[in-house]
Amino acid sequence: MSVDQSAGARQSAADPTPEQARVLARSPAECLRHGMLGAIPFLLVLLPFGMLFGVVANETGLNLPQVLGFAILVLAGASQFTAVQLLGEHTPAIIVIASALAVNLRMAMYSASMVPWVGEASARDKGLMAYVLIDQTYALAIQHYEANPRLRLDQRLAYFFGAAITACVPWVVACALGFTLGRAIPESWALDFALPITFLAMVAPMLRTPAHIAAALTSIICSLAFSGLPSGLGVLLAAPVAMAVGVWVEIWTERRKAGA
């Protein structure tokens, strides 16, 4: 291959595909709308879970302002369910807060992986992104950024915030609606099972590898072993033990594959 042909091949490989070219040509407003539309399928999961949180929160004894406070200030389904469960067991506030933070530690990893794409954003934009960073907005945005690495910073931000509008605003509405519906449910309808089943539905699809299963089993065993500790403390202690076991199994699995 000649020098000219080699240079032409490199240039061709660097050229964006027609789909990428269409994405790159979008204005920030168009990127915002694109992000909003892309997040719509997530509503099939977010709305039912938000409504369920409202129902469970009502059963726990929270009022509407408190439910809205959870939905707006916490804005994290797993942490909200964890906190409500512990509050229902009259757990000390410091344990509730620590447990909710532990459940959402994955957001720190999400944030770190977003730095190469939006690290040059202003402090205000970063703060707002951190607030609306949830599983759905992260998954949608990082996939879009990797598929279109030439996007400008303003296009990336607009797409992310568009996804956040679609995912986060309906979540708050769903929580309030669930609380309202929960008040209409007769007290004779026991809903104590709702929270454990919710967590099972959230966790079960994630158990895809031996490390996941080992971590889940460890958390169950440790939670039972620590059940005699003050309310909520056992779960808080079980979490890091389970994560450590999961990491160890993952490392062991990788080494075994490498040696095969």
TrEMBL record:
Cross-referenced InterPro entries: Brnchd-chn_aa_trnsp_permease
User: Can you supply one Gene Ontology CC term for this chain's record?
Assistant: plasma membrane
Sequence similarity: Belongs to the AzlC family.
The record's subcellular locations are:
Cell membrane
Protein's name according to its UniProt entry: 4-azaleucine resistance probable transporter AzlC
Species assigned in the record: Paracoccus laeviglucosivorans
Question: Which superkingdom heads the taxonomic lineage of this protein's source?
Answer: Bacteria
* One Pfam match: AzlC
User: Sorted alphabetically, which keywords does the UniProt record give?
Assistant: Cell membrane, Membrane, Transmembrane, Transmembrane helix, Transport
**Record keyword GTP-binding present:** no
Q: Does the keyword Zinc apply?
A: no
Q: Where is this region: Disordered?
A: 1-20
Transmembrane segments annotated in the record for this chain: 36-55, 67-87, 94-116, 157-182, 188-204, 235-253
Q: What is its main location?
A: membrane
Membrane topology qualifier: Multi-pass membrane protein
